[in-house]
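Cross-check.
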Amino acid sequence: MEIPYTYVRTDEEILGALWDFPKMPLVGTDTETTGLDPHTAELLLWQFSNGQNNVVIDCTTDNSISRRDTTSPVYRLVSDICTSKDVLKIGHNIGYDFKIILSNMGFKIRNMYDTMIAEKIKGAGRDFPTNGYQSLGVVAPKYTKLTEKDMNKALRKGFYSGYVRTGFSEEQLVYSARDVHVLHPIYWGQLFALQQDNLIPVSQLEFDIIPAVAMMEYSGVNLDLTHWRALLLETENRLSELRKIINSFLKPLEKQKAIFDDFCGISVDSPAQLGPALRNLGIDVESTGSDILEKISGSHPIIEPLIEYRELKKFFTSYGENVLSKINPVTGRIHGSFKQCSTSTGRFSSADPNMQNIPAGAKFRQGFVAPEGYLCLGADFGGQELRVLSYLSNEINMQEAFRNKEDIHNNTTCRVYGIEKSRLKEILESLDKKQTDQRFSDITEEEEHWKRLRGICKSANFLTSYGGSYKRLAQVANIPESEAKTVIDGFFKSYPALKRYIEVEGNKAVDVGFSLTLMNRRRYYNLPSTTDPDYDKMRAGIKRQAVNHTIQGSSADMTKLALKHTYEALNERFGSDNAYVWAAVHDELQCMVKADYVEEAKEILVGSMTRAFYELVPQTVCPCKVDAKYGPHWVH
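Predicted model, tokenized:
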């Protein structure tokens, strides 16, 4: 298929090719660069398309774009196109182009439509059985006559690997033009599908937060190297201690005595060696995964050290020197990747490094610090998913607890075990004070007992809300199945509307093939054949996923609304240099704010999150709870 394009190099040629683009309602855009890091990548080609004319700008020749001449007519022209609220910019992964243009040109693209995100929204769970996005090479053939082979995305690597400034080949220019040529037909095809399934509102939300997400990645966060290295050393020492404890159980099992007393021939890091060793200790396990070990916690003295070892080893491997290697050589900061809807539920995911899996403990988060003159300001939704669930299911007992500002886990404990609310509160407050004062020997059996029961009910609150069974509760809470069944029966007796909601919502998803969030975000399911021998198991899995999607997906929509409002409000009030969002982690937003503005910024952050909550959940049904605080490092 022949791709028409105009290749322009001089200011005069650029003006001639783009003069009427600011008047166009839709403009496709893309960039070719020397790399993926916006702080180091150079802009090589910049493409625009109005649906008929494809323009490829050479940004390596002597023109106003390569010189970044902000006073020139060319600069003003491309700036007008990109920043106009009246021109919708279409791109595939346009958040990347946003960062490239910001770094190379100094302005931010506004009013964007991302074909990559739109494709995920219209086919989540069905066309995307796993997390992730589809490349332009995969998406374009769905809406054009081009094939994936025609798109030839392997050519992009040629721009990264040793571009020589002797001009571009015809093949490279056609490739660049093709990437914008396909954007208009993709847009129109997607738009029809999004309108048909009432997905425009949630799509618009995703497009609205593209600048916020791009700026989170672009801004990054400082890492306290001294603190982090000390933490790694502490972790390494603890791993060594745990290894000795574990080896003390494993060494007697060795068939051949080791030459060195501190050496054990059975490696704790080898499942193939550890599994048989545990079975020789009388511990019957199907595997040595952490989830399996947690199920048998307390069954043998080796299990607890093994669990702690696995957790610390995972942190050390994922966030040790690996995090230090992510520090950008230009900015001196870590710039994680935040994928705003790569999951089927619509929740954020993160990588390089995964900021969402940083352990919640203070010693870990204290490593992420504010720049000089700034403070870290953070806020999270209190009980977000359970509040959303109380509204979705119309469970009045749960709603009443939230309206009365009760601890929902205490409320469940009282309902399941029949203890008075005031008595349970008294017991737990006494326990908490003794722990705070480090008077551990004064803690009574009664206090330990009710702490344990509250923990079981807390697990029940979350597990049963997502279709978890009493058998799963027994595993998580490490209690007999008979006790877990009693708890689950008591739970559903306390919150009868939840049981009805879980059953109805699960069956509906099986019947229609998809589930919906409060913003109408869909997750599709590939329904099994009734003749499939695993039909019942697969059907039960779909029902669990559907309930999980309605709750987690609605909560994700809420967090994204909060991000949108917060980003816009902080920008409008303080400007992005004085206050900005640097992370969205599950139900929390993290900001950096100039110290002089932090109190006012805190009010804006709490107000923005509260506004987002009440846009989805009526205030008369369930109140919002947002906790905010600030300090010199990541606060939670």
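The CA atoms of residues 34 and 162 lie 8 Å apart. Residues 535-574 form the longest helix (40 residues). Passed to J.P. for a second look.
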